[in-house]
Amino acid sequence: MTRALLLIVVCVSSVCLAGLAVSAHSISEKARKLHFSSIVVDTHDDTTQRFLDGKFDLGTRSSTGSIDIPRMKEGGLGAIFFSIWIPSKITGPEAVHRAMIQIDTVREQVRKHPNDFVLATTAAEIREARKQGKIAALMGLEGGHMAAT
Ligand SMILES: [Zn+2]
Predict the structure, then answer these.
(1) 32-79 pLDDT, tens per residue?
(2) Structural domain containing residue 7
(3) What distance in Å separates the CA atoms of residue 78 and residue 42, rounded to the nearest whole number?
(4) How far apart are CA 138 and CA 109, in angstroms?
């Protein structure tokens, strides 16, 4: 009895998996079309920390991390929020100073790759970047301490 029940469960699972495979294929194609016809936004990217040493270049495919321009383009990324982050134990003018340095590093990446990036601060600018075939670069402040609050 247990074997029969197990066999039924396996068969049902196989049928379900086969159904999912067909279904996943059609969903995948729909998802692909939706993805590449949409403006895909990465709302939180911590790569900004890598800009600080001046050696990391977004324009080169990197074997570490998950962000670089070649993979952004392959993945159809339309906009990215580079996070400006420093530890919360750093406050006051030092926090503001370090945040400004990170903001400059993001701006520098945009300057280094004018054919790939455009700075953006509004939805309209993101749409305009899309029209130009560029990725909108935005910034997100990851904590009020960097605004000297
Ligand atoms: Zn973060």
Answers:
(1) 899 999 999 999 999 999 999 989 989 999 999 889 999 999 999 999
(2) 1-37
(3) 8
(4) 12
Distance 45 CA to ligand 1 centre (A): 6
pLDDT in tens, 85-137: 999 999 999 999 999 999 999 999 999 999 999 999 999 999 999 999 999 99
pLDDT at 66: 87
How far, in Å, is the centroid of ligand 1 from the Cα of 50? 12
CB atoms < 10 A from the CB of 100, how many?
12
- My answer on whether 32 and 45 are in the same domain is no
Q: Which amino acid is at 147?
A: A
DSSP 8-class letter at 138 = E
- Residue 146 alpha carbon to ligand 1 centre in Å: 14
What's phi and psi for 3, nearest 5 deg? -60, -45
Q: Which two tokens stand for residue 89?
A: 């134990």
43 Cα: distance to centroid of ligand 1 (angstroms): 10
Quick one: tokens of 93? Answer: 């003018």
Name the token pair of 108: 């520098």
- Pair 50, 119 in one domain: yes
